[in-house]
Design brief:
single chain, 245 residues, disordered C terminus
C-alpha cells in the first residue's frame, strides 16, 4: 500500500485509527511501515492506536527506541494485554516502572490489575494491591470494589466480600447497580438465598435493576411465584417503561 497523497503524521494516524476500528490490522500495520519510508516518525498516538496484546511488547520497545515517551494510555493498554495473557508479574513490573516515572497510575490501571489477578486466582496479590490503594489515600471507585468483591466470592470468601461492600459508603463510594449485582450473585452462587433476597430488596428500593446473570440465578434457586422474583420482574418492567418514555 502506497499512499502518495499523505504527507503528515495526523493524516496517517487518522487512517490507521480507521483501519484498526474496522479490524483491518494488517492494512494499519502497512501504513505504519510506510511512514518510515517517508521519513515520518510515529508519535504516541500512532503507537497507542496500534498496540495489541500480541504485539504490545515489540511496539513498546520500538516506541522507546524512537524517543516516544509512553503515556498513561500506553501503560493501560500494555498492562491490560499482559493481564489478559496471565503475565501478572510482568504487569506488576510495568506498574513499578510507571510509578518510578513521572506518571501516576490511575484507578483504571489498578482496576485492570486487580481484575486480572482475581480471574487468575491470585487473590492474595489482589488483596495486597487493594489494601495498598486505601492506605495510600486513593479514593476508590465502583470498578475497583466490584473487581475485588467478585474475586473474593469466587474464592468462597463471602464474609470478606460482604465486609468490603459494607465499607464502600464509609470510604466515600456509593454502591451502584454493578456492585449490588456482584455481591448478590456471590450469595446466590453460595446458595444463601435469604441474604441475597435482603440485598435484592435494598437494590430495588434504590432504583437499581438486576442484570441477566442475577435474574437467572434467582430463577434457578427460587420458584416462579417467589416474592423476590416477582419484585425483580416488576422492577425490570418499570425500567423498560422509563426507557421507552
Amino acid at each position: 500500500m502506497v499512499t502518495n497523497g499523505i504527507v503528515d503524521i495526523f493524516s496517517y494516524n487518522f487512517l490507521i485509527n480507521g483501519y484498526c476500528k474496522c479490524n483491518r490490522i494488517d492494512e494499519a500495520n502497512e501504513l505504519f511501515d510506510e511512514m518510515s519510508h517517508k521519513s515520518l516518525v510515529p508519535d504516541i498516538v500512532t503507537y497507542n492506536t496500534l498496540i495489541r496484546p500480541h504485539t504490545a511488547q515489540e511496539l513498546f520497545k520500538d516506541m522507546c527506541f524512537h524517543g516516544q515517551q509512553p503515556n498513561i494510555v500506553t501503560f493501560s493498554i500494555m498492562i491490560y494485554g499482559l493481564c489478559r495473557k496471565g503475565n501478572h508479574d510482568e504487569a506488576l513490573a510495568l506498574l513499578t516502572k510507571m510509578e518510578k516515572s513521572q506518571l501516576r497510575p490511575n484507578l483504571v490501571i489498578y482496576s485492570i490489575l486487580i481484575n486480572g489477578m482475581c480471574k487468575a486466582g491470585n487473590i492474595n496479590d489482589a488483596r495486597k494491591l487493594f489494601s495498598s490503594l486505601s492506605e495510600n489515600g486513593l479514593q476508590l471507585n465502583v470498578y475497583i470494589y466490584s473487581a475485588i468483591m467478585e474475586g473474593l466470592y469466587q474464592e468462597g470468601l463471602m464474609d470478606e466480600a460482604y465486609n468490603i461492600f459494607r465499607d464502600m459508603e464509609r470510604g466515600g463510594c456509593l454502591p451502584n447497580d454493578c456492585c449490588y449485582n456482584v455481591i448478590i450473585q456471590g450469595f446466590l452462587r453460595h446458595d444463601d438465598l435469604p441474604k441475597a433476597s435482603e440485598l435484592i430488596n435494598k437494590m430495588v428500593d434504590k432504583g437499581f435493576s438486576a442484570d441477566d446473570t442475577t435474574t437467572e440465578l434467582v430463577v434457578h434457586l427460587s420458584s416462579n411465584d417467589d416474592l423476590i422474583l416477582s419484585k425483580l420482574r416488576d422492577r425490570s418492567k418499570a425500567s423498560e417503561c422509563v426507557n421507552v418514555n
